[in-house]
Design goal:
Elements: E1 2-6, H1 9-26, E2 31-34, H2 41-52, E3 62-65, E4 67-69, H3 80-87, E5 99-100, H4 109-122, E6 128-131, E7 153-156, H5 159-165, E8 178-181, H6 184-188, E9 192-197, H7 203-211, E10 229-234
Parallel strand pairs: 1-10, 2-3, 2-6, 3-5, 6-9, 9-10
Antiparallel strand pairs: 4-8, 7-8
Helix pairs in contact: 1-2
This protein binds fructose -6-phosphate (F6R).
Length: about 240
């Protein structure tokens, strides 16, 4: 795992943006794996700016998001579909049909999981997957204890994740109980992974990742078994890690 230490959120966002632009210039038809949440927002802003300035085009790019809540309409401001359109997709020159998120609204969710995996495979696999990390070490919505062998699946959210995400909802009762998420195995199949971590509330998870063993109790630790991972981490997130 390559570790890039940066000062703060802004520096993390710019570094991630720079790496993505670099890869996009190398690839003819880039396939990006994307995340929602507070972590990548600054990176999306930077990518939008680069696109508007003409430094990068998304015309030949496909995107696949990690996850979506189950049971929330796409036009609901709390859905990840809404987030992605609002924060990124509607502001760049990507073709509508090339941006993908799993659907949390299908009757047959097992079928949706399989079809999402197939769509990723049909696109040639993910070239570069962007990840954030939960305070409990989750990636995507893969909570502690998720078997590393899981592909896209429906997950029950832990109380800690529902609480963390309740900041976007009117109350915690409105936070869905389930989500559809790429599994650890799906994530590991990406050719390259960019893990972004900022803030003191992530410091425990970072310490477990850097100093601990690979364990299903710390989902992010699976990335230690991947050959091409870059961790971009700020000072606050590194504050509980001995190796600096
Ligand atoms: C989002 C996702 C989650 C988040 C994680 C961190 O698509 O899959 O794993 O990356 O919960 O969220 P933030 O960035 O809001 O702290």
């Amino acid at each position: 795992m390559k570790i890039i230490q940066v000062k703060d959120y802004q520096a993390m966002s710019e570094k991630a943006c720079e790496i993505i632009v670099e890869r996009m210039q190398e690839l003819e038809k880039p396939v990006l794996g994307l995340a929602t949440g507070s972590t990548p927002e600054g990176m999306y802003e930077c990518l939008i700016k680069k696109n508007k300035e003409g430094n990068v085009s998304f015309k030949n790019t496909s995107t696949f998001n990690l996850d979506e809540y189950v049971g929330i309409a796409e036009e609901d401001p709390n859905s990840y579909h809404y987030f992605m359109h609002d924060k990124f997709l509607d502001h760049v020159d990507i073709e509508e049909e090339n941006s993908h998120l799993p659907s949390g609204l299908e009757k047959d969710m097992d079928k949706e999981c399989k079809e999402y995996e197939q769509m990723i495979r049909d696109a040639g696999g993910i070239d570069l997957q962007v990840l954030g990390i939960g305070v409990n070490g989750h990636i995507g919505f893969n909570e502690p204890g998720t078997p590393f062998t899981k592909e896209t699946h429906v997950v029950e959210l832990t109380d800690s994740t529902r609480k963390a995400n309740s900041r976007y909802f009117a109350s915690i009762d409105e936070v869905p109980t389930h989500a559809i998420s790429m599994g650890p195995e799906t994530i590991m199949q990406s050719k390259e992974i960019l893990l972004l971590i900022s803030g003191e509330n992530k410091a425990d998870a970072v310490a477990k990742l850097i100093e601990g063993d690979v364990s299903e109790q710390v989902p992010v630790s699976i990335l230690k078994n991947h050959e091409n991972v870059t961790l971009i981490v700020d000072e606050a997130a590194l504050s509980k890690t001995k190796i600096k």
